[in-house]
Specification:
The protein is mainly alpha-helical and 204 residues long. Among the domains are: 21-52; 65-168, no CATH class. It has seven helices and no strands.
Amino acid sequence: MNHADSMTDIIDIKPPVVFGWDPKWIYLLAALGVVLAAILFLWLWRKRRCKAEAVPVPLAPPLPEDVTALALLDELGAAYGIDDREYYFRLSGILRGYIDARFSLDTMEKTTEELHTIVWGMEAETQWKSGLMELFRFSDPVKFADAEAGADRRARDAAFARSFVEATRREIEMPRAGGTPPVGSRAGGTPPVGSRAGGTPPVG
């Protein structure tokens, strides 16, 4: 081996080895930290939200059935452009719903003939029972056979329904001053007849 060949066999000196973190690993760890922080935040947020939803929220007491029925009658009276069929479907539905809630009965799925026994078993005056059955029987051909009722008959049946609800609503016990119990209404919703001093009934 001559001197020229020995010079060509010299191996290049390697660059100095750099010790420390590779920048790409630093970026990767930073991104991983951001992801973990986001996951932790979402977990804490959902845990707090579930805890807040678990707190029971007091519900408002349901409205008395007479208040609900009278409000529905007001809504029906204000309805514009509905035909007789829809009117009597809604009117009979309001009455059935009130009867069910007020007297703890089940009339919504009953036929008119089945209603006869139920209605006549209610604790109400005879005039209300007969009036209800007359209204239900009249409404059947209007609802199912396209019979006409007319504005006057509508108004008369709506007035009866309102009077029935107002006459048979539940009594609210309101204690009087001095502990005297309130004077209740008679059975069937007929209000008691008051009297003046000396026993003379009031005029009006």
